[in-house]
Design brief:
Layout (H helix, E strand, L loop, with lengths): L21 H15 L21 H5 L7 H30 L4 H36 L5 H26 L9 H8 L3 H23 L3 H14 L4 H13 L3 H14 L4 H13 L3 H14 L4 H13 L3 H15 L8 H16 L3 H14 L4 H13 L3 H14 L4 H9 L3
Helix pairs in contact: 1-3, 1-5, 3-4, 3-5, 4-5, 4-10, 6-8, 7-8, 8-9, 9-10, 9-11, 10-11, 11-12, 11-13, 12-13, 13-14, 13-15, 14-15, 15-16, 16-17, 17-18, 17-19, 18-19
């Protein structure tokens, strides 16, 4: 299964191959920016779709030139600690509810919430340790002490942001419910009923696979959900249930199902990949990175996971580390013969923005031009060309690119800003 592509992949590939935390996450990011001299990534920033570019990359360089702010660093650690406490509280509530009922779904939610609480606790400890190292380095008379302090302050901020992402994950709930008939059959005692459950679960799974391959995701999800209620150990049904949640846009439900499946099948790299893409769609970029990494440890040539990892790092403003997996994913997405699949253009755009923010403007321009050949109506790509031309001092070409981008998206302020910088 592919999280970065449209959902047309074969069903068998699935097994192998923020609103609630805005205040806390915002506090962590804000305090981290003060402690480390500015949020990582700076500039106008690129998005997972390769848009929003332009401006300078001064914010990246700015981090290494600002002093460590001790009180702000303390606030980062405090924000991470509060996140760990909040995640633990949410997990305890869900676990308590699960203990009062035999409902399978509540048990799965409790398991997922406890995992989120563990992630938040780990992130809180990481933030505290990074802050200690930052303070120690700031007091050091060594020549590289300042750089080390800046780096550790950034790590503390990232850990605090990761902790609040975990708080959001502790609130995850799927939007679907199992059918009443499946629930009744699942609770019926006796050997004959157990045989009936296993037969019906397998039938639901087989029929669901056919519907998934036909891209009838809603109907497929109902059948996979029924199969997992009747036979909770049906790992393939659980994996495909998670993917259908994903394809239907129920990313919170997908996170719960992927995590439940991973409890039984931790070596299935496709599950780690699906969890990573679900987190990416929810804006949990730090946690997404943590999910893609084990998928790639098991299969370094897993191009969809490489695409996901690069996309998450791009969103975090870590352009230097985003570029290698994106370039590798781009190479792997191109067929030897025939037309390129739709996701290739999206990957190429992300490679282009990474190159732009690394100040490799000529290479970025070539990549934007190549990407625009496949998607000529993408205003982001024309805007990207415009910003590269600005950096290269080619203002006439920049005006042409920005005018085309403005035709495609008349209300985009970054494009208007580009035109002003180009001399209009």
């Amino acid at each position: 299964m592919s999280g970065g592509a449209n959902a047309g992949a074969a069903a068998g590939a699935a097994t192998g191959a923020a609103a609630g935390t805005a205040t806390g996450a915002g506090a962590a990011a804000g305090a981290g920016a003060a402690a480390g001299g500015g949020a990582a990534g700076g500039g106008a920033g690129g998005s997972s779709a390769g848009d929003g570019g332009g401006g300078d990359s001064a914010g990246v360089a700015g981090n290494s030139q600002a002093a460590i702010n001790g009180p702000a660093l303390e606030r980062v650690v405090d924000a991470a600690s509060k996140a760990a406490s909040e995640a633990a509280r949410l997990a305890a509530i869900t676990t308590d509810a699960a203990k009062r009922t035999d409902e399978q779904q509540l048990s799965e939610l409790a398991l997922a919430a406890r995992d989120a609480a563990r992630l938040a606790a780990d992130a809180s400890r990481d933030a505290a340790r990074a802050a200690e190292r930052a303070n120690a380095a700031a007091r050091s008379p060594s020549l590289d002490g300042r750089a080390v302090a800046q780096r550790e302050a950034a790590r503390a901020r990232s850990a605090a942001e990761r902790a609040w992402e975990a708080v959001d994950e502790a609130r995850d709930r799927p939007t679907r419910t199992a059918s009443a008939s499946a629930v009744r059959l699942a609770s019926a005692p006796g050997m004959f009923q157990a045989f009936r459950r296993s037969m019906r679960a397998e039938s639901s799974f087989s029929y669901g696979r056919g519907l998934l391959e036909a891209q009838k995701y809603g109907e497929a999800r109902d059948l996979f959900a029924e199969a997992t209620v009747l036979y909770p150990e049906h790992d393939q049904a659980r994996a495909l249930l998670a993917w259908t949640d994903y394809f239907l846009g129920d990313f919170r439900g997908a996170v719960v199902e992927f995590k439940t499946a991973l409890q039984r099948q931790p070596t299935w790299e496709g599950l780690h990949n699906g969890l990573g893409w679900s987190r990416l769609r929810l804006g949990r970029y730090h946690l997404a990175v943590a999910a893609f990494q084990p998928a790639l440890e098991r299969n370094p040539e897993y191009f969809d996971a490489l695409h996901g990892l690069g996309s998450a790092l791009l969103e975090l403003g870590d352009y230097e580390n985003a570029l290698p997996p994106l370039e590798k994913a781009l190479h792997g997405s191109r067929p030897l013969v025939g037309e390129e699949p739709p996701e290739t253009a999206a990957i190429r755009a992300k490679v282009a923005w990474s190159l732009y923010y690394l100040q490799r403007y000529r290479e970025a321009l070539q990549m934007f031009i190549r990407a625009s050949l496949g998607t000529p109506d993408s205003y982001q790509l024309h805007a990207g060309m415009g910003w590269c031309y600005i950096k290269l001092g080619q203002k006439d070409d920049a005006r042409t690119a920005f005018k085309r981008a403005l035709q495609l998206r008349p209300d985009d302020e970054s494009v208007r800003d580009g035109l002003r910088r180009a001399g209009i």
